[in-house]
Each structure stands twice: as C-alpha cells, then as structure tokens.
C-alpha cells in the first residue's frame, strides 16, 4: 500500500492506494475518532459491486452504517438530490460526530462531499473512489460540487475528507470507456507538472491499458502526490491550483454545451487539453514537437482529440465558457504550457484564437 | 458609529453599529476589494423599506447590483429557495469576485449567507441586518443555515461575512412583537457573560423599550463584542461557542415541534432560557434569587416565560430535542448558569428533570 499525505495543517489527511482496501474500510476509519453512525452514499451501479463489502467492513469495526443509493450518472449531481440525502441523514439521526462515506466515482464524491460539507454545517467524510478518474482527481483536494441548469459545479464547497482509500481492485470492474476517460486526467498531470511521468506514460501505455496493478499503483500515487502538493500550496484556488484546470475551460464548456452525459469528463478534457496545447503553441511558444506528442498520446489512449461544431454549437460553447468560474471580469483565462511538465495560469487568450484552434486551423 | 472587530485571522471583519449606515453601504463596501457585480438578497417585507436605498448606495459607488427578493418568513429558509437564488445569481453572471449583500433579518441572513458560502464554492458577502435579533445575533459569527422538514438549521455552513452594517434606523420600522423578540437574545448575553449588562438591562428597560438610539447603540455594540469574542475563540462550535446556545435546546425544540412561525425565535428562547435557569438551579445551584431575576426580566420585557403542553405536544417536543445538533451520542446536553454572567456548557440533564421543569414543577 502506498500512502500520500495531503498537508493542510490540522485538516491534513492521508490518501491510501492499494489492492483490497475496501475490505479494510472499517479498520481504516476506526482510528479517526469518528462517531458510530455513518452513511455510505453510493450510486445504483457502484452499489451492486461494492456496497455490501463496505457495509460489512464498517459494521465489523463497530460502526452503524446506513446505505443511501442515488441513481448513477451526472444527473444525480443536483440540488434536489442533495436535499434527498439530507432528509435521509436526518431520518437516520446522523449527528455532528457522524460521518459520510462517499463510495463511487466523481459524481458520488462531489455530491456526498457537498452533503458532508453542509449537513449540520459540516460532518466528517471519507472518500472511497471506485473509478480511475475519481482516484486521481476528484477524490483528492476537497472540491465538492453540484450542477445548476446554468453550468457544471456552479455550487459547492471546499471541504476536505478525513481519509481517501483508493482500492485498485475496484478498477477491474470499470467499463473500458470510463477507464480510458480517467487516463485523460493522468496525462494532464504529466503535462502540467512532470515531464518524466509523461514520458513514462508514453512508454508504459500498453501496461496501463491492460490495467496492470503495479503500473497503476505507481501512476495513481504519483498523480495524487502532484495534486496533494498543488492543493497544499493553494487550497481554495486563489492561484496555483488553477493549473489543475489545464484543458478544463474548453472541456467544461464542451460538457455543458453538448448536454451532460454525451461526453465523459475525460473525453471532454482530452479535447480541451489538445486545444490548450495548440493555444500554448500560439501564445507561449510550446514547441510543435510537444504539441504533437500530446495529441499523439491522447489518440493512442483512445481519447477524442478534436470536436466538430456547427455555428450554433460553437456559439453555445462560447456562451458556456463565459459562465465558467475561471472567468474574471468577463475575460477568459487559460492555463497554457511552455513545455511538457511546465504550465502557466491566467493567460489571456483572444476569442479569435480560440475559435481558430477549435476549427482545427 | 461604534466598530466591533471580529478577530479571525485573515478572515477578520468589522461590525459597524450606528444610524444612517444603509445609505453608506456602497461606500463601506468600496475598500473591500470586491468585484463590481453583486446581488442584494432581501425579503418581500424588508424590500419595501430598504432595497431602494441599498441599490442606490451600491450603484453610486460603482457597483452593479441585482435585487433578489424572497417571500418574507421562515418558510423561505429552505433548499428550494436556495436553488432559486443560485439560478438568479447564475443568470446575472455573478463571478468569484462578485458578492452578496444580505439585507434583512435572520432568515435572509442565514439564507443569503448559505447561498454565498456555496455559490461557486463561496463568494464574498456583506450582512446588513435590519432586525434587532439579526443585529445582535445571527449576522455575527458566520453561522449560515436553512431548515429541513426534520428540523431547523440542519443544513448550513460556517462562513464569515466581510462586513456587518447594523443600521439603527432600520429598527424604527420593526413591528413591536419582533423588536421585543430580539430583546431575548440581548438578555441572553447578560446571563452568559456579563452581569453588568444584565443589571443595565434591568435598570434601562424603559429606554430600551422606547428604542432609544443611544441606549441601543451601546447595548447592541456590547452584545456584538461578546459574540465576537466567543466566536473568535471557537469559530466552529467545538466548545465555548456552545454557551451562545443558552436556552436554545428547549427553544429550538419549541419552535420546531409547534410548527415554524407560531413562536418567534426570541419568544421560544425566552421560554427556553427561563427553563434553563430553573434547570441551572437544580443542577448547578443557581440561586433562587437569580432565577427570579431572570424570569422577571423576560416577563417585564413582555416575553413568554412558560409553555403549556399536552402529553402529545410534550412528546413531540422531546423528539425534536433529540434531533438537535447539540445532541451527542444520544445524550441531551445543556448550557446552564452558575450565576448571572457565568455559564457552563455540556451539562447532562436527566430527562425527568427537563420534564418536571417544563411542567412548571
């Protein structure tokens, strides 16, 4: 088992990465000084595979868990579902010392984290991410959120878990499309912070695609380390943390303007990252060679690298981009790369340049 | 103008108490380095009196305010209303640097504060409390919240404003019943922390009931000072802050079990405080003389000091008490007084004693 520490003073916590961790959930929670009552929030897909093991492990360690299952999919990340969870927590009489276990992918983690952040003005929570995307990204760093009709993650809280358990065995049941989507965030860490990781991904791609446990353990732990380091320096996204959004300005706009669910998050940000690489070439002088390596790696993984848009779709996409949280006083700012492993944030990009790049020019 | 500072490190802020402050709202916000776009959240009653002045003052200082009006009353403190506010903020394109002004009483402050705490994972907000209760209590200290069907304030966040403006002129339009309700919290500060304040209230009651500006300025500033001091020592209610809940365990249960709106908050906690004083006599040896002074002051102010309950109502009340956030591992804990000006928190009280006291025994 690999352990990554997220250094946030008295709110520091550990990310544990390894096989068989779900069956140790109760034992791992026991030293955290939490109350006995807890709620496992999961979705209808994940529940089939893992909720039994989670409840069993918690009960065996003396906890009293209740299971809350929401429908699988992004549509559960909305206020009405948050309220349903609250009502169930109240019915089960969860108290201030009680805690929530988020068992599932990014949707469950974001939803359950927001519920934990706001129920009784905040109770403890433990993340048990079961998708690759959630293990390397959404479960780490304390961002929680739900969507509004107007956009993705427009509501939320910065709220840190007490513990993150990344069980590598959970990845074995992941549908191929979802697994590959998760690789988009992994490649991102290479681009923004770690040229060596990027080169390793290029080299070890076959093993990664085969879900080789040793390769996954090393890669996931390294990604968590990078994220923990960035979050430790800038918890509430006042500066540096923005680099984690490489490819996300366009990516979120694609997700939003095409209707949630058409593109998986990883697919949308793969397109967004390739576009951001091209913008980086024009604005920061990222070499054509690096742009080509980036585009090639995403393509080899099996992720989309461009999007075809009608005029109406393009307008919708730009409207979505302008509502993004990363907009400040109406200007669209990007994270752009100088070279693989080094990025800058707050780069202003003219709208024409964005349009040209999205048109493939 | 009196200024009270709330010492919370980089989240410190000022409470300003005086006449004519609403017309200075824009000027007071100007030095806070906030974005230009803002939303004034208010209710249908308060809006009639004050929203025009608030918007005018903000516009005059270069801000671009939008007005969001919710129906007056506790019923607006619910998740569906929170979502309506989010949608309006998104429609008005509020960004991370934008801010919210909470213009109104406790309901508006709690609702708008929760919206500010969670929209875009938190934007700035300014409290302009227009009721006595909000000026001395809910606007100070960073507690925000909304109700669930299961209970009051079961959802919320600890989230500090950037500024609190208590305009004493706003109190002139307050209905008598509401004004008197606010006095219940003021008396509370005397009981929990300041025997001199309590004696002043006994002495200056006629002036206070006449809403004399000089008397109000001194009393409100002193209450804010006490609350700021307590909150500065314990922001997230891990210990000391509990003393602010003197009278609230029973008070909240009365509000909840009798249906929101039957008793005003101040009326419910007046009954709760008199009951807590009687419990204090039994458990901590509070003198009969102090119990009598407390009961007399509430009665002289015009607040209820006891409640008549049927068996069914009593059962409902106890059920509500057990769901309170101050319950820990199923035990009901109270804040009790040793003498006027000195309280202890975390006092366990047998259920029979609570029943006897509520029965007037």
Briefly, what is this?
Chain A is of the alpha/beta class and 361 residues long.
Walk me through what this model shows:
The structure is a homodimer of 361-residue chains. In chain A, α5 (132-138) runs parallel beside α6 (176-193), α6 (176-193) runs parallel beside α11 and α6 (176-193) runs antiparallel to α12 (288-301). Chain A has a seven-stranded mixed β-sheet with strand order 1-2-9-6-5-3-4. Chain A is globular. Chain A is α/β, with parallel strands linked by helices. In chain A, 48% of the residues lie in helices and 19% in strands. Chain A folds into two domains: 2-173, Rossmann fold; 200-358, Up-down Bundle (Dehydroquinate synthase-like, alpha domain). The first copy, chain A, is built from 14 helices and eleven strands. The interface between A and B is large, with 42 and 42 residues.
């Amino acid at each position: 088992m690999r352990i990554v520490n997220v250094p946030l003073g008295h709110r520091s916590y550990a990310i544990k990465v390894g096989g068989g961790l779900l069956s140790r959930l109760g034992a791992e929670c026991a030293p955290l000084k939490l109350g006995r009552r807890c709620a496992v929030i999961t979705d209808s897909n994940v529940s089939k595979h893992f909720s039994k093991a989670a409840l069993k492990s918690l009960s065996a360690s003396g906890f009293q868990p209740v299971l809350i299952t929401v429908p699988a999919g992004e549509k559960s990340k909305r206020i009405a579902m948050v309220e349903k969870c609250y009502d169930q927590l109240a019915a089960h009489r969860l108290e201030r010392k009680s805690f929530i276990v988020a068992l599932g992918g990014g949707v469950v983690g974001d939803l359950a984290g927001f519920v934990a952040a706001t129920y009784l003005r905040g109770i403890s929570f433990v993340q048990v991410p079961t998708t690759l995307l959630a293990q390397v990204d959404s479960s780490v760093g304390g961002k929680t959120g739900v969507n509004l009709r107007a956009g993705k993650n427009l509501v939320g809280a910065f709220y840190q878990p007490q513990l993150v358990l990344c069980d590598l065995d959970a990845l074995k049941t992941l549908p191929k499309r979802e697994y590959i989507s998760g690789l988009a965030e992994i490649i991102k860490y290479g681009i923004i912070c770690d040229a060596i990781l990027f080169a390793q991904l290029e080299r070890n791609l076959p093993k990664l695609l085969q879900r080789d446990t040793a390769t996954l353990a090393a890669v996931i732990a390294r990604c968590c380390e990078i994220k923990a380091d960035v979050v430790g320096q800038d918890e509430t996204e006042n500066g540096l943390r923005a680099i984690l959004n490489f490819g996300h300005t366009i990516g979120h706009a694609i997700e939003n303007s095409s209707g949630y669910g058409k593109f998986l998050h990883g697919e949308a940000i793969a397109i967004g990252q390739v576009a951001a690489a091209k913008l980086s070439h024009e604005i920061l002088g990222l070499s054509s060679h690096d742009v080509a390596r980036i585009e090639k790696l995403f393509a080899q993984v099996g992720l989309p690298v461009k999007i075809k848009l009608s005029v109406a779709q393009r307008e919708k996409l730009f409207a979505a981009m302008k509502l993004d949280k990363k907009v400040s006083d109406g200007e669209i700012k990007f994270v752009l790369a100088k070279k693989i492993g080094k990025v800058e944030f707050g780069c202003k990009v003219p709208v024409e340049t964005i349009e040209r790049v999205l048109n493939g020019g």
